[in-house]
Write a structure and sequence with these properties.
With 191 residues, this protein is of the alpha/beta class. 33% of the residues lie in helices and 18% in strands. It has helices spanning 15-29, 52-55, 67-75, 92-100, 141-152, 176-189, and strands spanning 2-7, 33-38, 78-84, 123-130, 157-164. It has a five-stranded parallel β-sheet, sandwiched between helices.
Length: 191
């Protein structure tokens, strides 16, 4: 089993990264091939809106450091996306990846019943952390991105680990319950 993890935080040892790393470590212990990309350390461009992925090619033509991740996701069984909430949304680093997912869509994606080039059956794990202690705040983010990634990109199932009230004022402070949740989820879906 292959797993790709995209860390959307600019802090590679931050709260969302810590939960994602626990998931990935547990998955590796179970025999999965686990690879992590720290998006903030990569030289990445946003979608250029060139439509080359729809006109002449079946993949993004932008040559940057995200290319390996985009190609790896096609071969992976599970994609893990980890992000803190910044300015009421996912980080810019992760949003850049989401925009680049446009390349996975077939040219007639608006009318095609199978709008994605993504091989079927992939699983998605979304890890979201927020300092704000009210769990209702920002609860709309996962459904919005999950809808796009499942209905358009083609992920078969999705799982959410959401931690609120962590890392207020920039501290790294992940309660053990969220780390256990990551371990338990890895054991459940990596078998």
């Amino acid at each position: 089993m292959k797993i790709i993890c995209l860390l959307g935080s600019p802090r590679p040892e931050g709260n969302s990264a810590r939960i994602a790393r626990r998931f990935m470590e547990t998955a590796a212990e179970l025999g999965a091939e686990a690879r992590i990309f720290e998006l903030n350390r990569l030289n990445v461009k946003g979608c250029q809106g060139c439509w080359a992925c729809k006109k002449k090619f079946d993949m993004c033509v932008t040559r940057d450091d995200l290319r390996d991740a985009l190609e790896g996701i096609l071969k992976a069984d599970i994609l893990v996306l980890a992000t803190p909430i910044y300015c009421r949304d996912i980080t810019a680093q992760l949003k850049c990846f989401i925009d680049r997912c446009f390349a996975y869509l077939v040219p007639d994606y608006l009318t095609n019943p199978i709008p994605s080039r993504m091989p079927p059956g992939k699983k998605l794990v979304f890890i979201i952390t927020q300092g704000f202690p009210d769990e209702k705040r920002f609860a709309d983010l996962f459904p919005r991105y999950d809808n796009f990634l499942r209905t358009r990109i083609g992920f078969a199932e999705s799982h959410l680990i959401r931690a609120w009230g962590v890392g207020t004022r920039g501290e790294v402070d992940v309660p053990e319950k969220y780390l256990r949740q990551a371990e338990d989820l890895a054991r459940t879906i990596v078998t």
